[in-house]
Write a structure and sequence with these properties.
The structure is a single chain. By secondary structure, the protein is an alpha/beta fold. The protein folds into five domains: 23-52, no CATH class; 54-129 and 141-177, no CATH class; 184-321 and 343-393, Rossmann fold; 402-482, no CATH class; 485-525, no CATH class. The protein is built from 19 helices and 21 strands. The strands form six sheets. A seven-stranded mixed beta sheet has the order 10-9-12-13-14-11-15. The chain has a four-stranded antiparallel beta sheet with strand order 1-8-7-6, covered by helices on one side. Strands 16, 17, 18 and 21 form a four-stranded antiparallel beta sheet that branches. Residues 215-217, 256-262, 373, 394, 432-433, 436 line the site of adenosine-5'-triphosphate. One of its GO terms (biological process) is response to stress.
Length: 536
């Protein structure tokens, strides 16, 4: 152990050595030319580097001469925001570009420590202020940077693994904080006459509140979908290894009001993806469809709703490929008029190409979702696995689904009426949309008891309707546009023919109606289902 006397001597020696060094350096500065000083300076650096055991990596905010914002800087910033907000003492808060939240990050000249695989690293945040900045009419922006410091023995691990981890994590955090967007395609005619800057897609902020927690669906099915989505989103390497484009097709089918669109919103919220809602009837032709595909970004869900209405995909593939697909058909045609006068010339083969052609692999991970009310009407080529990898049937509400809705809408998890509701739900077909509507209080005074009794009434009505409802209605001919169609109405298991006029009134036997698409539901032909029963 050093005695106070030897310590004193040590300090004295060190002090005089530094003083001599400073003196020599001052002489060198004064009498030696600049070149020599530089030469000596570089040697000093090398000497320091030899003894200094740390390595530093600097990540600047701007890159290149055009001061382009560095992607790496913003990713590091996002990565450190989670860490530093807990550790650092001086933070700054900003609303980032496209961000919905206030982001906290380290303030300038702040340091934080991070640990990765048991190795400690240090991050410093700082900035370079240009001297000409204050005097200039167009001041240069401050050039901020992050500096990473670590021991040189961890060089390989840090440069190969840690930095990649920081960038990936940062990108993920950025994406989660980013305001998500809901895009829709503009019809090509509207682009032609408007500003040149307008693209094929226009967007608004996507703010649908649906989540898997608020979705009425059997828990097993929910878990299956969330696991499928998570596995997909983490399988970049797997898809690359098996040589498959990183995308997944979902086909959601089921009656109206069973939550297909809600499920899409929940999927987008779950994965923090943007949504591209593709209106096929506004797409001019296959080329435009391809351009739209190229215009989408990765980590997005491309949705084509009511695919059976957008295009006629019921016939043989060959036949349809020859014929431009008619966009004027379908149950929701009124709301989905083609905006182009010539209508859509998109063909089935164009659509198949869109889903899994060569272009579909451009730009990274994507989920393509089709929804339909009539899955059986779709061409098998469209729905086969590989194109639509996962088929999800959205069905009528069951008791499990009801419990989710009761919790969402009324904050009720148990109630004396639940047993009765469970029994009625087995006997009546009711969509989650109808359950939701009944459970929603209509006035400030309506409480859970009132809403639940409303639902019981609706269930009883649906039960009676189900008892009286004809089981199946078939249109026998749809070939000729003007010819009346003979319709066979069957009640339960006993088919019965009735004769009717073109207006649809019955006289018994078989019924003649105006041509209607095949197959057709009884409520589309006869506004009142009770009337249908009365006819029989
Ligand atoms: N499974 C569900 N869980 C929660 N809410 C639901 C569900 N299904 C329907 N709803 C409610 O009903 C409304 C209509 O549902 P949604 O639009 O998702 O039905 P859809 O199946 O897409 O119908 P369509 O075939 O007519 O497009 C939603 O706004 C939502 O509030
Ligand atoms: Mg829908």
């Amino acid at each position: 152990m050093a005695t106070p006397r030897t310590m004193m001597e040590l300090w004295t020696t060190l002090g005089s050595t530094i003083a001599s060094f400073m003196f020599v350096w001052a002489i060198i500065r004064q009498f030696f030319p600049v070149e020599l000083r530089r030469y000596l300076g570089s040697y000093t650096h090398r000497l320091v580097d030899y003894f200094y055991p740390y390595i530093q990596i600097t990540i600047h905010e701007f890159t290149g001469s055009h001061l382009k914002h560095s992607e790496a800087y913003s990713s590091v910033e996002a990565y450190l925001s989670t860490n530093s907000s807990k550790i650092a003492k001086r933070l700054k808060a900003e609303v980032g570009k496209d961000s919905s939240k206030l982001l906290l990050s380290m303030d300038e000249h702040e340091r934080v420590t991070d640990e990765f695989n048991g190795v400690q690293v240090w991050w410093l945040s700082s900035k370079v202020v240009s001297l000409s900045r204050a005097m200039s009419y167009y001041p240069e922006p401050e050039r901020r940077y992050y500096r990473l410091k670590f021991h040189k023995k961890h060089r390989d691990m840090i440069t190969e693994t840690y930095l990649e981890h920081v960038l990936n994590k940062g990108k993920e955090i950025k994406r989660q904080n980013k305001q998500r967007r809901l895009y829709t395609n503009n019809s090509s005619s509207s682009i032609k006459y408007s500003s040149r800057r307008q693209t094929l897609w226009s967007h608004i902020v996507f703010e649908h509140p649906a989540t898997f927690e608020t979705l009425a669906m059997e828990p097993d099915k929910k878990q299956e979908i969330t696991e499928d989505l998570l596995t997909f989103s983490k399988s970049k390497d797997y898809y690359a290894r098996i040589g498959k484009a990183w995308k997944r097709g979902y086909l959601l089918h089921g009656p109206p009001g069973t939550g297909k669109s809600t499920l899409i919103a929940a999927m987008a919220n779950f994965l923090s993806y943007d949504i591209y809602d593709l209106e096929l009837t506004a797409v001019k032709d296959n080329t435009e469809l391809r351009m739209l595909l190229i215009g989408t970004t990765s980590k997005s869900i491309i949705v084509i709703e009511d695919i059976d209405c957008s295009l006629e995909l019921t016939g043989q593939r060959k036949k349809i490929e020859e014929k431009p697909l008619d966009s004027n058909k379908g149950k929701k045609e009124a709301g989905k008029e083609p905006k182009d006068e010539g209508g859509s010339k998109v063909t089935l083969s164009g659509l198949l190409n869109f889903i899994d052609g060569l272009w579909s692999s451009s730009g990274g991970e994507r989920i393509i979702v089709f929804t339909t009310n009539y899955v059986e009407k779709l061409d098998p080529a469209l729905t086969r696995r590989g194109r639509m990898d996962k088929h999800v049937e959205m069905s009528y509400c069951n008791f499990e689904g009801f419990k989710v809705l009761a919790k969402n809408y009324l904050e009720v998890e148990a109630h004396p009426t639940f047993d009765l509701i469970q029994k009625l739900m087995k006997e009546a077909l009711i969509t989650p949309a109808d359950v939701a509507e009944n459970l929603m209080p209509k006035t400030a005074t309506e409480n859970a008891d009132v809403c639940l009794s409303n639902l019981i009434r609706a269930l009883n009505e649906a039960k009676d309707l189900k008892k009286n409802e004809p089981a199946k209605v078939e249109a026998m001919s749809t070939d000729t546009e003007k010819e009346p169609v003979k319709v066979e109405v069957m009640l339960l298991d006993q088919p019965k023919d009735i004769t009717g006029s073109t207006e649809g009134t019955s006289k018994g036997g078989s019924m003649l109606l105006d041509p209607i698409k095949d197959p057709v539901k009884v409520d589309e032909m006869l506004p009142d289902k009770q009337e249908a029963a009365a006819i029989l």
